[in-house]
Amino acid sequence: MTAGIGVMMYTVLDQARADLEGTLARLAAMGYLGIETYGLVEHFGPARVRDAIAAAGLTLTSAHTPFPAGPDAEALLDANEELGAGILVWSMEREEFDSPDAVRRGVERVNEAAERAAGRGMRIAYHNHYAEFSRRFDGQQAYDLLLELLDDRVLVELDAYWAQMGGADPAEVLARLGDRVRLVHVKDGPAVSYEHDVMVPIGEGGIDWARTLSTPSGLRWHVVELERLHIDTFEALRRSYDHLVGRGLSRGAHVPAPIEERT
């Protein structure tokens, strides 16, 4: 079955903080099926965010939240349990890919989070940036070392854009991840600079999304994330939806009319 289409709420964080219910309703009206939370629970509290998602008829795909490890673990788990999150997504820091030992130390935190989350019936998912793919140790890609060390219960959210910027082929990465990958961040642009890239609507940049998203994998959700836009955010989300759902790459609430039929 084609994966559902969602939105990473970092994309509309300012709008959601100003009008949570209205922003979610607007995303649902476009045809988006789900959202990945970011920065909302801290602002509104988990109960209001949970209720607003339900009122909009959306699904909570995942919660983008720090790994529940260390002294803050139980508070993070409490909040996400009240939110109703089943998958908690976060990343290791760029400097944690400076050496194999740094990777091993960082993974200890992720695996602790996986153990603690399992006790609450939740799963951890690892979200990459570019260092995981750009750095190699004795010929081995840092991402491969990471996957070897991660607890088998840790799922994957692949950010295909940053993977490509790190020198990887996102389609090949998805193929070898198999059922372990459940979510993919879908963004588009030049894929040349982590700090300075300006994103564009999906299908208008340098990522071959048709090839990437047609690769057999365990994906359940295509989560659109657009950062540093030079056009209206909702317009960019609409054009992204039309591209992904209109071409049958993602599943939405409705199929957009062909371009020539739109007014």
Automatic annotation (TrEMBL):
Keyword Isomerase: yes
Keywords on record: Isomerase
SUPFAM superfamilies in the cross-refs: Xylose isomerase-like (SSF51658)
Record-linked Pfam families: AP_endonuc_2
Domain of life: Bacteria
Boundaries of every Xylose isomerase-like TIM barrel domain copy: 25-214
The organism's taxonomic lineage, starting at the top: Bacteria, Bacillati, Actinomycetota, Actinomycetes, Kitasatosporales
MF-aspect GO terms: isomerase activity
InterPro entries recorded: IolE/XylAMocC-like, Xyl_isomerase-like_sf, Xyl_isomerase-like_TIM-brl
Stated name of the protein: Sugar phosphate isomerase/epimerase family protein
